[in-house]
Amino acid sequence: MKKRQGQKGFTLIELMIVVAVIGVLSAIAMPQYQKYVAKAEVASALATLTGIKTNVEAYSVENGVFPAAGKEGELGVPTSIPGGTIAFAASASAGSGTITYTFKASGVSSLITGKKFQLARTGTDGSWACDGSATTPVTDDLLPKNCK
User: Fold this and answer.
1) In sequence order, what are the beta bridge partners of 87?
2) How many Cβ atoms from other residues are within 10 Å of residue 104's Cβ?
3) For residues 109 and 41, is the Cβ–Cβ distance under 8 A?
4) Which uninterrupted H or E stretch holds 14?
5) Does residue 29 surpass a pLDDT of 90?
6) What is the mean pLDDT of residues 58-77?
7) Is pLDDT at 1 greater than 70 in this prediction?
8) 56: Cα within 13 Å, side-chain hemisphere
9) Which of 11, 23, 71, 147 sits a CA distance of 20 to 30 A from 78?
10) d(CA 65, CA 56)
């Protein structure tokens, strides 16, 4: 009498179930990961702009006005950095203005390509706040919590 050999390996249905589970997990995980990367890049931009605030404050105290466009070099601020560009814009009221960070069209998350992020300074009290009035602003769900 011949002894029956035990079956080894997986059945086709078991393999199909594993592939389906992996597909569902990746469909959920990939968008969340892309959002996480975009949030990290926006937080990095905020950190960059926060560092520039000190130079702007010093310039405003010395000159009595917010630095105008083109003054980035005088303040030691690079206009172009790996993830985007930085620009100043003075407002009509003395000491007021914005620092705008524009994300590049490539090399950053697709959720923020070409979007803008601003910090605005009010001249009356010298306070800074995130400003969502930029054309093509970064969406609120990608902004750091202290900027909402």
Assistant:
1) 100
2) 15
3) yes
4) helix 12-63
5) yes
6) 83
7) no
8) 31
9) 147
10) 10
Under DSSP, is residue 104 helix (H, G, I), strand (E, B) or coil?
coil
Asked if residue 41 has pLDDT above 80, the reply is yes
Question: CB under 8 Å, gap of 24 or more: what pairs does 100-106 form?
Answer: 100/134, 101/45, 101/48, 101/49, 103/41, 103/45, 103/138
Its CATH architecture, for the domain 13-147, is 2-Layer Sandwich (3.30)
Give dist(CA 92, CA 148) in Å, integer: 25
Percent of the chain with pLDDT over 70: 95
**Residue closest to 88 by CA, chosen among 74, 108, 105:** 74
Query: Alpha-carbon distance 74 to 92, whole Å?
Result: 21
Q: Which residue has the tokens 């959920």?
A: 28
- Strand pairing partners for 130? 119
Q: Is the pLDDT of residue 26 over 90?
A: yes
**Encoded amino acid at 141, one letter:** D
CA distance 110 to 108: 6
Locus of tokens 């994300």: 103
The residue written with tokens 């997986």 in the block is: 10
Coil/strand/helix, residue 110: coil
Largest CA distance in the chain: 103
